[in-house]
Amino acid sequence: MLFEINKNIFNSFPEFESERLLFRKILLSDAKDIFLIRSNDEVMRFMDVPRHHTISDSEKLIQTAEETYNNEVGINWAIIEKKSNVFIGYIGFIRVTPEHCRAEIGYALKPEFWGKGYMYETINKLVRFGFKNMKLHSIEANVNPKNERSKKVLEKIGFRKEAYFRENYLFDNKFLDSIIYSLLEKDLTETVRK
After folding, report:
1. Mean of pLDDT over the chain
2. Going by DSSP bridges, is the β-strand pair 174-184/160-171 parallel, antiparallel, or unpaired?
């Protein structure tokens, strides 16, 4: 049996929707909204990545997202609330490992949209896309152990804790712990399969 991901998704950017949300390509015009996320203290508390200090930082992130897609090593979407047509966050397969049919997800949401089930809806849609359209075998998420919200939503979807690494990540002159969660298609809960 031959195992390989469907690389055709890199031929034309895939856009899709869920009940309340649209998922489209991230545009340079989204830089202001990304800046609002990546400069927000609440959001950045558990995101162990550099904070954005200028709109230019956010524009560079968008350019990097474009490059990862063009190089077939990642794919990122803007999350748009249908009823308001507002950019509320982003999600993506930030690292695709074709030889292992595996990808890592990353995501962020504006705090004013927390607690509405949007990230649950988003991750549900993304994992279905990953397994059915990309033909992934497994999806992983690297989470700061203190990020209870992120752990809770991943576990609700069916992700399982795969590893706890102690001080494996150097960020901002501190060694941090991380938890790796993973999901196989066969792990999906009935909620995800609907």
Report:
1. 93
2. antiparallel
